[in-house]
Amino acid sequence: RLGLSPESYSQLARRVGSVFHCAAIDNFYLPYDVLKETNALGSVRLAQFCMEDTIKPLYYVSSCAAALMDDNLMTTETVGLVNGYAQTKFVAERIVLGLIEKGFPAINYRLGYLYSLEADLADKEESFETFLASIFHLRCLPDIDIVFDLTPVEYAAKCIAKTGLEERQGQRKSHYTFYNPVPLKWIDVTEHLLRL
Questions:
Q1: Axis crossing angle, helix 42-51 with helix 6-15, rounded to the nearest 10
Q2: Which portions of the chain are predicted below pLDDT 50?
Q3: Residues with Cβ within 8 Å of residue 13, at least 6 apart in sequence
Q4: Of all helices (H) and strands (E), which one includes residue 7?
Q5: Does the predicted TM-score (pTM) go above 0.85?
Q6: Which residues have C-beta within 8 Å of that of residue 58, sequence separation ≥ 6?
Q7: Which residues pair with 60 in a beta bridge?
Q8: pLDDT in the model for residue 15
Q9: How confident is the model over 103-145, as pLDDT tens digits?
Q10: How far is Cα 188 from Cα 66, in angstroms, rounded to an integer?
C-alpha cells in the first residue's frame, strides 16, 4: 500500500489520473539484494496501484543500464555497469514491458546517466562524481579509453513530459530511449583536468 493507510491509498487510487515513476536508489556499488525492495518491488507496487480502482497509465523511468543486461543475457562475461542497479532496473523494466504487452497503458523510458545543469545540485555520493573526486584526491589520472553518457536531467524531464502528452493525444509508443547523443570522451575530461 505504498506505506499509506488503506483510506489514503483508496482515495489516491480514485483521484490520481496517471503515475510517473522516477524513484529508485541510484547506486552503482550496492548489490541487487539491497536495491531489490525499492527498485524492483517498488515498481511492482506502483503497477498494482495503477490498476487499483480505475486504470491509470504508468510512465516508468528505467535506465540505459538495463540495456547492458539485454545485451549480455546469454553470456557469463561481466560487461559495463552490470551491477545491482542495472539488474533491478532490468527486472522492473521487464515487469512494465510485460504489462504493456498485455495492453496496459504504460510507457518505458530508458535514460542515460542523469546529471543536473545546476552545478550546486551535484550529488557527491554518486559514482561519476565519486570517480572525479577520487582523481583529485589521489592526484592521478587513469589511462582509460571510455565515454560517459551524461544526460541533463532537465532535458530528460522535458522529453518525458512531451512524450507523455503525445501518448494522451493518441500518438502511442511504448518505449523511448533518451541519452546524450554526444557522449563525453575521457580524453576530453583528462585534457580539461590537466589545465586545472
A1: 60
A2: 76, 78, 81
A3: 49, 52, 53, 54
A4: helix 6-15
A5: no
A6: 18, 19, 21, 46, 47, 50, 96, 99, 104, 105, 106, 107
A7: 21, 108
A8: 95
A9: 999 999 998 888 777 755 555 666 667 777 788 788 888 888 7
A10: 27
